Amino acid sequence: MRSTSRLVTHSHCVATVLAVAGLIAVTGRAQAQARANPREGVRKTKGVGTYADVNGIKLYYEIHGVGRPLILLHGGLGAIEMFGPNLAALAKGRRVIAVDLQGHGRTADIDRPLSVELMADDIAALIGHLGLERSDVMGYSLGGGVALQTAIRHPEVVGKLVVVSTPFRRSAFYPEILAQQGQVGVAAAEAMKQTPMYQLYSRIAPRPEDWPRLLGKIGEAMKQDFDFSREIAGLGATTLIVAADADIFPPAHAVEMFALLGGGQRDGGWDGSGRPKSRLAILPGLTHYTIFSAPALAATVIPFLDEPTTTR
Length: 312
Description:
The protein is an alpha/beta fold.
C-alpha cells in the first residue's frame, strides 16, 4: 500500500502552503525563543536529543519527562518544535519521545519515498531500539498518518493511539485543498523560502540544501490516492480521534472514522457501559493550522492517555 499512503504526507503540506500566514505567529514565537536560548529545548529533555540508527536512517528524537512512554509525531514540513507548549504539558505526566520524521527537522532524508508505512516502520524500530515493550503513539497530520500506520502494521508495539487532524481517505479533503495538490514541488522551493517552515528547516536541518528535494518528494506523494477504511476497521488499539471544527475536512469525516472504530452505534448508558473503547473529540474554534499548538489539544489528550484501557 506504499503508493496509496503517500498522500497522507500531502495533507499537511498543501494545508501548510494555504496557511502560511496563520502559522507565522506560532512559529515566529518558537523561533524567537530558540534564538534567545538555542539550547532551551535540549535542557528540558531527559538527556540530550540524540539519534537512533534504524532501518537505514538516523532518526532524531528527544525525551521529555518521565513515566509511561508516548511517541509524539509532528506534521509535514514541521519538526518537534511545532507542538510548542503542548509538548511540555504532555511531558508533565509521561515520558514523551518526540521524533523528527524522515527528511524533516534534524533527521536527514535518505533514498526512499516519503511513505507513511516506511516511516511507521521507523517508529516501530525506534520503540524496539529504546527497549520499550509498548508505547502510546500520537501524531498530527502527516504524523497522524504515521501513527495510524504504526498501529496497523505493528499493533504489538502500540498501546493507545491518538490521531490528530488526519484524514483517512483522500476524498475527504475540501475541494479547495484538492485543487492545490499540483502546486507543491521542486518549483515551489524558492518561493517557500519566505515561509516560517523553511526558516525552521534551514536552522536545524543537517542539510538545508535538501529543501527542494523534500518538496519534490511531497509533490510526488500528492499524485496518489489513499483510503485506509478497511485497515481502520480492523484496528485493535484504543484510539482517540481529534479534529478541529474548521479542519481541512468536514467534521463528519472524523465521525466516520469514529464509526469505523465502533463509535456512535448506541447510547452510552447511565453507567457508561455502552461507550466504545475509542474516543472522538471535535475541538471548537480551531483549524488545521492552530490545533497542534492550542492548549485544548493537550487538555483533551491527557485524560484519554491517563484513563485505564478497556476492552469494550
